[in-house]
Design brief:
Radius of gyration: 21 Å
Order of helices and strands: H
Largest sheet: none
Helix content: 55-70%
Number of helices: 1
Number of strands: 0
Distance between the termini: 55 Å
Shape: elongated
């Protein structure tokens, strides 16, 4: 932190590892990864549709 930090007690390091022993942690990470994959697939499909429309022009 810098010397002029007005909130020195609010460090992200206080929260590091707070869910490491939570039995649902890996499940939550898997859900996040699945959701990101779903969004990526949707975006790829959207861009293919946009590209197809541009080719037709």
């Amino acid at each position: 932190m810098s010397a002029g930090d007005p909130f020195p007690h609010l460090s992200w390091m206080e929260f590091a590892g707070m869910y490491a022993n939570n039995p649902l942690f890996d499940e939550v990470l898997a859900d996040i990864a699945a959701y990101r994959y779903e969004i990526d697939v949707d975006m790829e499909d959207y861009y293919r549709q946009v590209d197809a429309k541009e080719i037709v022009k």
